[in-house]
Each structure stands twice: as C-alpha cells, then as structure tokens.
Amino acid sequence: xxxxxxxxxxxxxxxxxxxxxxxxxxxxxxxxxxxxxxxxxxxxxxxxxxxxxxxxxxxxxxxxxxxxxxxxxxxxxxxxxxxxxxxxxxxxxxxxxxxxxxxxxxxxxxxxxxxxxxxxxxxxxxxxxxxxxxxxxxxxxxxxxxxxxxxxxxxxxxxxxxxxxxxxxxxxxxxxxxxxxxxxxxxxxxxxxxxxxxxxxxxxxxxxxxxxxxxxxxxxxxxxxxxxxxxxxxxxxxxxxxxxxxxxxxxxxxxxxxxxxxxxxx
Amino acid sequence: xxxxxxxxxxxxxxxxxxxxxxxxxxxxxxxxxxxxxxxxxxxxxxxxxxxxxxxxxxxxxxxxxxxxxxxxxxxxxxxxxxxxxxxxxxxxxxxxxxxxxxxxxxxxxxxxxxxxxxxxxxxxxxxxxxxxxxxxxxxxxxxxxxxxxxxxxxxxxxxxxxxxxxxxxxxxxxxxxxxxxxxxxxxxxxxxxxxxxxxxxxxxxxxxxxxxxxxxx
Amino acid sequence: xxxxxxxxxxxxxxxxxxxxxxxxxxxxxxxxxxxxxxxxxxxxxxxxxxxxxxxxxxxxxxxxxxxxxxxxxxxxxxxxxxxxxxxxxxxxxxxxxxxxxxxxxxxxxxxxxxxxxxxxxxxxxxxxxxxxxxxxxxxxxxxxxxxxxxxxxxxxxxxxxxxxxxxxxxxxxxxxxxxxxxxxxxxxxxxxxxx
Lengths: 266, 217, 195
Hints:
- The complex is a heterotrimer of chains A (266), B (217) and C (195).
- Chain A is α+β, with helices and mostly antiparallel strands and 266 residues long.
- Chain A has 2 domains: 36-91, Electron transport complex subunit B, putative Fe-S cluster (3-methyladenine DNA Glycosylase II, Chain A, domain 3); 101-263, Alpha-Beta Plaits, CATH 3.30.70.20.
- Chain A has helices at 2-29, 36-44, 58-67, 80-91, 126-130, 148-152, 177-181, 206-212, 222-226, 251-255; strands at 101-105, 158-161, 164-167, 187-191, 196-198, 232-235, 238-241, 261-263.
- Chain B is 73% helix and 2% strand.
- In chain B, strand 1 and strand 2 form a beta hairpin.
- In chain B, helix 3 crosses helix 4 and helix 3 runs parallel beside helix 6.
- By secondary structure, chain C is mostly helical.
- Helix content of chain C is 74%, strand content 0%.
- Chain C contains 9 helices and no strands.
- At the B-C interface, helix 2, helix 4 and helix 8 of B face helix 2, helix 4, helix 7 and helix 9 of C.
C-alpha cells in the first residue's frame, strides 16, 4: 500500500523538479537584456501607440532613440513639449517640440444647414452609412455625423453636435486616429495656434453646393480678394488656407457670405 | 454577533450580489456545456463546490509558504489534486453522473471561478472565511447552473429532473438542448438579471432624488 | 492510422465538432478576448502554437511515464503541470528569439494556461487513443477551429458594438445570443458523414 502512495508522490515530485530546473535554466539562457535608457524613455512616452512618430508603437520609438537610430527626437506629437523636454534630459541634448497641431472636422453641415438625400435608419456608425452612397447628406463631402471618430478618440476630443462632428482642440493630442478612420476623409490637421479655418471641403461647384447645403463654400473668391497675405486660395471648388502665410487677421471670415470660415472663439 | 453577520453577508455575496456566473461572468464553459439537464447541472455544481471549498481551505492554510513567482502554478496544481479526488469519487459512487458529465469533470481544474477565488480571496484570508467564501461561491454557481439547466430541460426536453411535465402532446424545442440553445438561454437569462439590476438601480436613484427633494423643503 | 483517418479527424475538429461552437471548450477567452479582429487573431495564433506543442508533450508524458507506473488516474494533474510549464517556457523562448510574435501575443500567452481548450485537447487524445502524430495533428486542427471561431466572432462583435439593443440586452447578453446564432450556423455542418 505504501508503494502506491510513495511512487506517485515520487514521480510527481520528480516531474515538478525537472520542470522547475528546465524553467530556471531557460530563464537564464533566454534572458533578454533591456536597455536602461530605452526603458527610461519608454516610461516618459504617453503610450498612446498611435504611430504618429512613424514607429510601430511607443516602445519601438523608445528603442530607436536609445540606440541612436531615431532621426528626430521630437516626433511624439501626443506628448508634446513636456515629453520632448524629458527625452532631451535623458539623452543629454536639447529637444524642441514640434509645432502643435490639432484635428479639425472640415464640415459645418449640421442638421440645420445640410440637406439629406434619404432617411437613414441603420447602424449608428459612419463606416456603415458611408457604404450607402456616401451617407445621407446630399453633399458628397459632408460629415456623416454618426460618430465613428468619437468612438475611436481615446482623449475625448470629439463629439457630435447637431449631426456634425466637432473637435475640442484642448483635448486633441494629434494622434490622427480620427483622420484615419473618417470614411469621408474630411478631418484635417490644423496648427493649434491658428485662429481660423475654412470649415468645408466641398468639391462641388458653387451652384451645386448651394443646392446641397446652406453654408458650404461656394468658391465665390471674396476671401481670396480680401486676404493681403496671399494665404487663402481656391482648390477643388473650395477655399483652403496656407498656414505658412496666414497671420490670423480674420479678414477672410469677415467677408465670407456663407460664414463658412470659423474661428476658435466662435 | 459579528461573526454571524459576516457569515450571512458572505453567503449573500456569493450567491446573489456577486454571483460568479451572473455578475462576475466567470466559468462559462461548464455553464454552457453541462446544463442540458437539471441533474447534470446539480452534479456539476456540487462537484465544483466541493473542489472550491477544499482548495480554498488548503490554499488558505499554505498561503504564507508559497513563493510569489510560482503562485498561479501552485494554485493550479493544488486544485487539480482535489479535482482528481472528486473525479475518482464520482467514478466510484455516481457512475452515471460521471458518464454524462464526461470530460467536464477534469475541466473543473481550469474553471476560472476556482482560480479567481483562490487568487482573490483564499490567498489573502484565514481558513474559515475562505471556506465560507468557497461555499457561497459554489452555491451561487450551482444556483446559476440550475436556473439555466431548468430552462433548457423544461423547454428543450419537456422534463424536469427526468419527470415528464407536459405529457406526450408536447413537442420539445430541441434547439435548447443543443449547443446553440446553450448560448441563447444563457444570453436571455443574463438579460433578465441585467434588467433586474437596472430596475433596482433606477429605484435607488429615484429614492435618492426623492430624499434630496424632501431635504430641500 | 491512415492519412485519410487523420485528415477526417482534423476536419471534424475544425468544422463539425468545432471546439467552441459544438463542444464549448475555450469559451471564456472566446467571449472575453474577441472584441477586435486583430487581438482575436493574436489569441488564435497563441493557442495554436501552445496546443500543438502541448498535445505532443502530454502524449509523451502519458505513454512513457503514467502508463508505465499505472498512474493514469493522475493524468489531470500531470497534464496541467505540463501545460503550465510549457506556456512559461514558450513565453521565454518567444521573448528571446521571436520578439515580434511575443509583442503581438502580449498578455494572451499566460492566459492560455487556464484555457479549457488546451487541457481538453490533451484529455481527448487519451480518451480517443490517438497515436503521437494524430495527437499533434488533432491539437493543431482543434486550435485552427478555435481561431476560426474567434476571428469570425470578432467581426460579428464589431457590428454589435454599434448596435442599439434594449438596455437589458446591452453587452454580454447580446454577445451570447450572437454566439448562439453562429453556433446554429455551425451545427448545419453536423450532417457530414464520411463513411
């Protein structure tokens, strides 16, 4: 009877011992040395893993910086100035943060202004609605307003107000998740410091735009004539601002008959 | 006496407020697989409760001697020892139950509930509370199994614990004793549980605002 | 066993007796991890890797050790010991030699220890008396079935996220009902007969 108790105990104790030894040896052989600098940098990064720096995740960028392979040390737009400063401290160089950008949804076609082609009753998701001839608004470049960008934003910078998505620039960290997911490709990056932007990317000519929306840009060129800095021009039947030239004087907004140029203060 | 009060609180916690299946959503595998009849459900529930109590007690006894790195592995080995004991006991004394539960008896080892209670409770508390926790969680598990099993057996087979309920004119909806029916039944049962939770939450909010109104006046 | 028998066993494990929709092994991670198709694929890959290896190692332990000393009744303890150690070993191995895969699998690798599917595949090898090659093929095929189920379900869940059900059904109940409908679809394969 003792044999039947001793033998299993011995065998299983032996098995446990063997596995324990194998694992202990393996943990020595397979140990991975982690670069201390890479770990320090990784701690400082915001871990949004958004890819805006061009690397496949914060850990990858940290490794590249530590190895000296990263071309620029200020690529983290999510972290902005504080992170750039920390990275500079760790690497012992002066790092200046890049100019801060925020996302803007380039459409003002709220339920008040835009006309609809059909009544949509379906999944409350822009990607689904976009399949049905680009959404329910008549303008082909309109914001669908069902909030795919809202659900993908991890920083609570987006919300849908009256059928159109709006960015809160204070919360936006320029991770570009919304830019990538918008099925209409109407979210663009605009400098945080700029006070004005043309909130429309309608590629239809003036008469068509008038038919489809009460506020869309009709490329009347009044803003182009009013700008003294040559900063605004018409491309694809809508106005676009060149932020290298814009000085935020606001003359374009004052003359716009459609009130399509928005300002931060409105 | 404080001891008694804790005991009742713990029992209520395990069976209702923190029910492992309906609230914590652990232990799905056996819930879906063995609830084809109430008898199987009770058998599995009792077996799991026995393992849970024994493993909680044992782990609570040795909790100070287990090094941190091998914590989970040693918990699993301890649980598997008790599961083997329960399995052999069922094979000897309850053979038809053993045959109908089949492979799910040894699968009690990887039942999330037992590992979760060992990790969250037994490894940090004394023996008696751990035992009571095991008992309450096990009873909650059994209760949930019985609920799902009853629905499936009554609708899917027209019987309850083997007794014919509706007579020969009843055509049972066999889908309920098939795998698809397991998912559907559990989905609806949890929807009912969530509805009950929502109603009581709404009532609590309404009471709070009523009290606030009364305070203002 | 002939090749055709092995192929039939593999096909059965993937389609007609799918580990999740037919047998319920591996439900917990299936319901917990399947919210995004990319994480679902990662989990599937991890399970495939572990299950294939564990089936081989547990077969060896059972036939070379447990049977010789008449300790078949302790197979549960032995198998779970093997699986826990194997998962730990694979984690270390991948971290050193295939870091891309290790980062992709992330936290799912240690979770596989408590995955019902891995243990039940090992136990089924014993129950059905498969030989060594068949065990490994069975493990691989069963894990492929698991991956298929979990990836398909992740796609379904992406749609469920934006759906608008009654409040009591939001979240887990809706997921379960969707899984039930998928299980119904898979049960359509149950009529396939190879004899």
